Structure prediction request, 268 residues.
Amino acid sequence: MEVSQPDSITATPAKLLVENVSKRFTSSRATVQALENVSLTVTAGEFVCLIGPSGCGKSTLLDIMAGLTMPDSGRVLADGKLVEGPGRQRLVMFQESALFPWLDAMGNVMFGLKLKPGLTNAQRREIAEHYLRLVGLEKFHHAHVHELSGGMKQRVALARSLAPDPQVLLMDEPFAALDALTRDQLYDDIQRIWQDSRKTIVFVTHNVREAVCLGDRVVLMMPGPGRISRIFDIPLPRPRDINSPELAGYASQIAAALKGVTGGAVSE
Ligand code: ADP
Ligand code: MG
Prediction:
């Protein structure tokens, strides 16, 4: 369904337009206003990080962008079209890689390609090989999920998300469960892949440095009700080194703002 956009005269149409989105969850114990009146524009090729304390609605907002959850009010437009459900152009990658344990690395990436119609088996294999190479797993095509480290599993999950060539990648704390060294390597890889492929990425994290390392913009959210508190531009050149002093300057600024939101200590 085409929807007219009041700002359609601007040069770059929004890849994702979140307009006044609200979402409430009611359980037997409580009612939570997970999001209230959230609006956000993400342009094509942009890398946007959502950060905020646990429970501020980051995952809910990402799920609504993906079309996995419907808002109570407001709407999301992707390329000017109303998001009414999940689509091949907007794929989600979660913290737990959710790989199929009975398939090897190649099988898992090829499975993702079932979303893309009209490919022969040989074509799917070729594409899967390309993306496994891109994430540095060319030697592990036939490794089974239980043989892979946490970092390698997330690499397979990343290859599986990239293989159908979605325009938008929605990532929910994809590296949160990994050790610091593995994460640092993945920051380099995700920046390289993003720059080469010009994807639009929305990336949820609760790690300030991670957000500053990856984001063109960092969107700070706050809870009760879940909403956007502030948006920070990060004009640092790329590729960025997570341990650089320039990056630390932005990180401490955002950490201070985050402290204001949580009223307590946060880990940088
Ligand atoms: P975050 O990802 O920032 O930690 P979430 O988006 O997961 O936050 O959750 C926001 C709020 O909504 C939390 O209070 C959470 O408990 C609540 N919530 C999220 N999903 C559900 C659900 N399916 N049912 C009930 N409450 C939910
Ligand atoms: Mg979450």
User: Anything to note?
Assistant: The chain has two domains: 1-89+169-268, 99-165.
